[in-house]
């Protein structure tokens, strides 16, 4: 568990406000959320099933809520909980969470799951420029939205303790889409930032 020490800076809950209807955008893109991979203690995303991330385990335990301790790394076969996944991952170790998510896509393919899997991942924009995670995204995802690009606006996340919307983050945020309906993602998210198509989507356009 040493690799997953809880850090306060990792507690950034997804907002859903008039100016930033992010949860609504995600649900509209994928027609719902069946699995929230890194749910907050209030499960405010409203997914059908919620896992938690090990980096937040101490927080859950401090609140005395053990019912939500479904460690996303301990679960295999995420497709058993549906085909529409959202992951607002801890920002300090993105390669571990992206790697696990891609492993679950591979497992669904190996197990011949017929329902197409979709996933939207929230992270710092640095995951795109980082050599390791950037390669994962460019080669395995379909599209990336750089939220607020051109407008200077940044995501105002929600405080996990108070449930209140924080001031705008001091970093830029991206939303990465993996799945067959990347055009829907483009249509929904291009209103709020610049959407970059990745290698798989560009090949479809050729």
Per DSSP, the total helix count is 7
Oligomer: single chain
Could you estimate the helical fraction of the residues in percent? 25-40%
Decide which structural class fits the backbone: alpha/beta
Largest sheet: 7 strands, mixed
Strand order of the largest sheet: 2-1-3-4-6-5-7
Q: What does the average pLDDT come to?
A: 86
| Computed CA radius of gyration, to the nearest angstrom | 16 Å
Structure, described:
Helix 3 links the parallel strand 3 and strand 4 (118-124). With 206 residues, the protein is of the alpha/beta class. A seven-stranded mixed sheet has the order 2-1-3-4-6-5-7, with helices on both faces. Helix 1 (22-30) runs antiparallel to helix 6 and helix 3 runs parallel beside helix 5. The N and C termini lie far apart (45 Å). Helices cover 30% and strands 16% of the residues.
Task: Offer a few descriptive terms.
206 residues; alpha/beta; 7 helices; 7 strands; 16% strand
Question: How is the secondary structure organized here?
Answer:
Blueprint: H1 22-30, E1 35-36, E2 49-50, H2 57-62, E3 84-88, H3 94-110, E4 118-124, H4 126-129, H5 131-140, E5 143-147, E6 173-178, H6 182-189, E7 193-197, H7 199-205
Parallel strand pairs: 1-2, 1-3, 3-4
Antiparallel strand pairs: 4-6, 5-6, 5-7
In short:
It contains 7 helices and 7 strands; from the N terminus they run αββαβαβααββαβα. The chain has helices at 22-30, 57-62, 94-110, 126-129, 131-140, 182-189, 199-205; strands at 35-36, 49-50, 84-88, 118-124, 143-147, 173-178, 193-197.
